């Protein structure tokens, strides 16, 4: 199996996603076992990108369902195109008049109209949302259910039927089974605890912030124009910032944005001025920016133009956690 896992890692690297052995193993098993994957971890560590990368290496269409508070079954599964139904009714007005002309009472007219309701509640008026698209696709797809922890517990319960039997129920049409079982990846930023029933149906994967070595590889791969020495400095600074007690740690995607910003600024070293002027690319809360600047001022050892290191940001503190991928 080690050869298979190595092959998966190489394939993911080929689409610019650096995966750990754990990530490659879980994705390989999910594909072989036909199980959904639940990927949890901090925001911005590459969970969404993993699904997109998997679609690329498998050559399958990619469908994304973005979760949010208030998301319900109809928004995720289907909606009826009422405007189209009304237009269809107008076009068939004469036909409907002929159909109802022989009715002797309102009840009889209603019964005749009800007998034709299948015309108006048929697939021609059905607007498929991401879940139904994944189920009815003529070819297997990769379905990303992004940030499931943002959705309500009621929606999470609705997903259980879809993830356990890969089928959905539409009251007007009945149960629709998936033409092809999709590869499903759910992501969570741990904003709330997910149910054991949902977790039981999935293979579990925790993706943490990457190690310095892995993050360096990510930056070098995604931003090759950044000089290696400067890339190493940038990664060290980011790793140091994550050791601080911040409201929001800089994500890997923000590290990449920062690296690109340094290229745009034609920076050749990370002096104090460059760092302070670009901190907001990494930190998105003013309290975090001020905290980082205060730490930099306290640890000013190299002078105002000296190069920076993670010790300048937060000397001596270590972090613990599993290495993430990207």
Which short descriptors sum up this protein?
9 strands; 326 residues; Rossmann fold; alpha/beta
Provide an overview of this structure.
Helix 12 packs across helix 13 (228-241) and helix 12 (212-222) crosses helix 14 (252-264). The chain has 17 helices and nine strands. The model is unreliable at 301-307 and 315-321 (pLDDT under 50). The protein is α/β, with parallel strands linked by helices. The strands form three sheets. A five-stranded parallel sheet has the order 2-5-8-1-9, sandwiched between helices. The protein has three domains: 2-74 and 131-206, Rossmann fold (3-Layer(aba) Sandwich), CATH 3.40.50.300; 78-125, no CATH class; 212-313.
Produce the secondary structure layout.
Blueprint: H1 2-14, H2 21-33, E1 37-40, H3 47-58, E2 62-66, H4 73-76, E3 78-80, H5 82-91, H6 93-100, H7 106-115, H8 117-120, E4 126-128, H9 130-136, E5 142-146, H10 153-165, E6 167-170, E7 174-177, E8 183-188, H11 196-200, E9 203-206, H12 212-222, H13 228-241, H14 252-264, H15 272-282, H16 286-298, H17 310-313
Parallel strand pairs: 1-8, 1-9, 2-5, 5-8
Antiparallel strand pairs: 3-4, 6-7
Helix pairs in contact: 1-2, 12-13, 12-14, 15-16
């Amino acid at each position: 199996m080690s050869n298979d896992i190595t092959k998966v890692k190489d394939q993911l690297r080929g689409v610019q996603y650096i995966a750990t052995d754990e990530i490659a193993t879980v994705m390989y098993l999910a594909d072989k076992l036909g199980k959904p994957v639940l990927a949890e971890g901090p925001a911005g560590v590459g969970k969404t990108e993993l699904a997109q990368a998997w679609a690329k290496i498998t050559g399958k269409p990619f469908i994304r369902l973005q979760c949010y508070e208030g998301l319900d079954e109809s928004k995720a599964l289907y909606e009826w195109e009422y405007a189209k139904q009304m237009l269809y009714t107008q076009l068939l007005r004469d036909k409907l008049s002929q159909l109802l002309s022989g009715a002797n009472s309102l009840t009889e007219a209603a019964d005749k109209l009800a007998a034709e309701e299948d015309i108006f509640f048929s697939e021609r008026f059905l607007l498929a949302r991401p879940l139904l698209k994944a189920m009815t696709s003529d070819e297997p797809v990769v379905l990303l259910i992004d940030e499931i922890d943002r959705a309500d517990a009621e929606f999470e319960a609705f997903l259980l039927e879809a993830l356990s039997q890969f089928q959905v129920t539409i009251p007007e049409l009945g149960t629709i089974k998936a033409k092809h079982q999709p590869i499903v990846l759910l992501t969570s930023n741990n904003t709330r605890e997910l149910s054991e029933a949902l977790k039981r149906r999935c293979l579990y994967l925790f993706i943490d912030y990457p190690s310095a070595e892995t993050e360096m590889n990510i930056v070098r791969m995604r931003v090759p124009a950044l000089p290696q020495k400067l890339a190493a400095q940038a990664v060290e600074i980011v790793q140091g910032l994550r050791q601080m007690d911040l409201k929001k740690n800089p994500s890997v995607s923000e590290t990449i944005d920062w690296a690109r910003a340094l290229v745009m600024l034609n920076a050749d070293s990370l002096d104090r001025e460059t760092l302070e002027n670009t901190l907001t690319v990494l930190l998105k809360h003013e309290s975090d920016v001020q905290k980082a600047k205060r730490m930099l001022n306290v640890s000013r050892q190299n002078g105002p133009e000296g190069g920076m290191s993670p010790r300048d940001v937060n000397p001596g503190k270590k972090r613990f956690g599993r290495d993430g991928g990207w």
